Amino acid sequence: MALPSTAEANKQLWDEALTRLLDLSTSTVKHNADLESRVNELELELSVWKQAHASVLEAADFAKKAHKAQVSTLNRQISSLESIKGQNPLILCVVDGEANIFNRSLLALGQQGGTQAAQDMTQGIAEFLSQEDVQVFGRLSFWISVFINKRAILDTVLANGFCTAEQLDGFLTGFSQASPRFQIIEVGSASDAVNSKIKEYLHNFTRFPQTLRVFFAGGRGNPYSSTLSSLGQEELLGKLVLLQGSAEPSAELHQLALPSIRVEGLFASDLSPGVIRRSGLIAPGPLPLPAPSTSVTTNGGLISPQSETYLHLAGSPRGVGTAVRPIDPTKPLHKQSPPPCNEHYLMSCSKGPGCKYSHDWALSAEQLDILAKNAKKAPCNYLKNGLECPHGDRCCWGHVCPGGARCFHLSKGKCWFKGDGMHPPLPGEN
Question: How far is CA 286 from the centre of its chain?
Answer without folding.
Answer: 29
